[in-house]
Structures are given as C-alpha cells and as structure tokens.
C-alpha cells in the first residue's frame, strides 16, 4: 500500500509537470520546477510520518519509521537546496544577469521570500539533526527545534499557492494538491492533537507514586480512569508531559516498565537528560499528559513459541514489561550492564525470570563481548528457533542485529526498538 501510494503520486506529479502550458525558459528552469514538485510531495510524506499513524506504527515500529523520517528529511534538505538553485540559475541565464543579482530580485517578491525563509529553516533543522550535532543537544532542545517544521509547512504551502506553476495549471491540479495537503495536515492534527486531547480528558492521568531505583533511575507510577481503554501493551512506550512541573512543550519518550493492568501505568527512566533527572522530584498528584501508545515491539509480532529478550542499560524497561506477558512462552533474558549494581529493576527481573536471567557485566572488549555469534550461541543454543526482542543503546543493538544476521535468524523473528530520537 505504501509503494502504491508513492508510485501513484509520482505519476500524478509528473503528469502535472508535463501539463503546464508555459514551458520553462531553459533546462535549468525545467529541472528546478520538477524538483519543486518533488519537494512539495516529500513535505507531505514527512507530515504523514510525523503524524504517527497507528497503522504504520503497529506494522513497522517506531525504529523503522524513524529511519524513514530521517531519510525523508535528508531528501527534503537536498531538494530545498537544489530547487531554488536551479530556478535561480535558469532565470539568471534567461535574464543574462549574475545569479546573486537574480536572487536579490527574487527576494523582493513576498511569496518567493517566504520560500527562501522556509529553505533556511530546513537547513537549521537538518543541520542540528546530524548525529554529531544531535549528540551534543539535550533531547528537550532538539525536540523544540523541530517545531520549526510546522513553520516550514505553512511557508511552503503559501509559496506553492502563489508561485507553483503546476499547482495552478488547472482545477484538477488544485484539487489534487489541496487534497494532499488536507490529508497530511488532517492526519497530523488528528494524531498529534485531537486524539491526545480526547484521551487525556477521558483518562485524567496523575502521578500516584515516585520510587527511586538502582543506578540513578526512578520509576513513576501513574493512575487514572478507564486505562484499559488505552489498549496499551507490554513493550510499548508513550510520549510523556508533566505540565506544571515542566514546560508544556517538553516531552520525552519513555517505555512502560510494567505490563499495563488497566488501573495504572509505570515508566522507569535513568537520570540522563533534564526531564529524566527531574522525575524523582515529581510531586504526587502532578498532572500527566501522554501521546500513544506507540511501538511494535509486542508479543503480537511473535512467530515462534519461544523467546529471547535482550536488554542493555535502561533499555531493560520494555523488556521487563514483556516478561509479564503470558504469550512469550519459554523465555531467556540477557541483560547487559556495566556493573551488577547498575542493573535497573534487577530484583524484579530475577523474580520474573529466575535462572533464565543472564546478567552480563563488565566493559565490552575483545575478551568480554557476549554478543559475538559464538558467545551468543553458547548462551542460547537455540537462538535461531526463538523470537528475539532487543532494546538498548544503539551500539549494542546494532551489534546484536549483525550477529543475528550472521546466525541467519529470520528477520521476521527479530523485534527491536532503537529509539534513535530519544535522548534521556
């Protein structure tokens, strides 16, 4: 269905491009015009990804959607640079003046100027999302910067309406583009605003307890009304806000660290970022707002009778919740931590898993790497016959995924959440 959507829209976009009565003055202008159509469509696709459509989230999981979001963002970045560059080159050649002078002339036209501002905002967002820059930014700052995307969309729509030749070619083209923008913006408003507002009004979530855990972690217990209607499952996560304690725009993704029982929810976080460090100071009774549940790392994806759960650091939280799911079958748990004292929820894991829990400690090195193919098979000889659920730091998860591929564990048996967008 996704490929059909993309291909169908690609056909329509090219049809509109060739339907324009007034051809571009030269090749540069023609290329720029086509790149502008690609850019508008990719912005629509990005909006649909940001909307966190349940049908996509449950089918593919947040990790794969995050990868698509990143690649779409890079495509938008390059199209946002190349589209105006080719347009300006085309007009500069036609008018026989330098490109810089043509740029100044274009900037005097309000719709074009708005498009240039949108390009500048896109460059800022993408530049600060590059992994090197991203590591230096707190999650809260990175998330706030991404609000600029909404300004980009508004400016892009205005620019397209007034300057888009293919947009104005005929009534059919206008219906198509307005319909496409309505679909994307409607999905965004529904998924990110309307549904969360209705759910939070219904459930009236409040902090009921705050419990310190090992390794500078803390568990927050949340209660509310009719929580069984959230349809949350072990292995999923929510986006959490604590208005009154934190600014309204400050939101963080935290997994459920216990299987939802219809009366309460529990999250457990390590004190890394501003929000996670401040959780231990949450007053009981603090109002809680959530978006979700999200994530496809649940037993609904199982294809085998036995399971292997692999956790690293604070990534143990969804693994701990999954242990309460009776559909896991025969289960082995591997928990990678620097030191046994840092094993968050360690006692609960031992109570639930017993001797099926393997606590893997120490620094990773040539002599201490439990996730090589040889060592993993030693720990779990029948690993190829199990569903494998993985959550932990990106480096560890990547290493495990490479090993599972080396061992030829079928992809449908591997379920991972990397949370590359999460900070702390």
TrEMBL record:
Membrane-spanning residues: 31-50, 71-92, 112-130, 142-162, 174-195
One GO cellular component term noted in the UniProt record for this chain: membrane
GO molecular function: 2 iron, 2 sulfur cluster binding; flavin adenine dinucleotide binding; metal ion binding; oxidoreductase activity
Entry keyword 4Fe-4S: no
Location within or outside the cell: Membrane
Membrane association type: Multi-pass membrane protein
Key word Transmembrane helix present: yes
Cross-referenced InterPro entries: FAD-bd_8, FAD-bd_FR_type, Fe3_Rdtase_TM_dom, FNR_nucleotide-bd, MRET, Riboflavin_synthase-like_b-brl
UniProt main location, coarse: membrane
Residue span, FAD-binding FR-type domain: 200-300
Matching PANTHER family: 1,2-PHENYLACETYL-COA EPOXIDASE, SUBUNIT E (PTHR47354:SF8), NADH OXIDOREDUCTASE HCR (PTHR47354)
Name under which the protein is recorded: Oxidoreductase
Organism: Winogradskya consettensis
Lineage, broadest ranks: Bacteria, Bacillati, Actinomycetota, Actinomycetes, Micromonosporales
